[in-house]
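Predict structure. Chain length: 215.
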Amino acid sequence: MSGGSRAGVTPRADAKRERRAAAKLEGERQARRDRTASRIRRGAIWAAAVVAIGALGLALVRDGAGGVAFDGDLRAGGTLDALQLPQLEGGGTVDYASYDDRPLVINFFASWCPNCIAEMPDFERVHQRLGDRVAFLGISQSDPTQASIDLARETGITYDTAIDQQGAFFNALGAYGMPTTVFVRPGGEIAEIWVGGLDAETLEQLIGEHLGVTS
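Prediction complete.
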């Protein structure tokens, strides 16, 4: 019996079987490649969606609270990079960029806060003594606008005032009591976040300690 093929199997049948097997193997490989590509596409779409949602959430937190916008690492030792607030009176905007070349004292106040009412005339006295060497910014937080305007007039403060109607910036600082005073060095470094009332003497001591300015 001559060689060259098995009984009942022709070379042509063998070739067909091999082509089918090769086609099947290639089909399986292609299916795996397609599944991998699909997973990668889904992952990329999901990642992009997470980034977009995160950016939207950030924008809503920082720009959607009554015209208040802020950015930075808002804790003692962190940096205030940006801050915009509506003016308490006049309809304009208070922007941290106008203060960032000098020390800044930020004092949160409200008409429902007895300690705020008590300390505001002392803040005005220290403001007058230090002049332009230290900027002062009073921020009404979680208080009706007119009530805060009346309080600012009654206590005689003349430094800049703004309003954080919903307390968004106040809360972002992690403040937990009123009044709260924030001491910011030139360039935006947050030197101290002080919770509680201050008299003129203690305020001047803290400004000297944290901001390096004495009267």
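Summary: The first strand starts at residue 69 and ends at 72.
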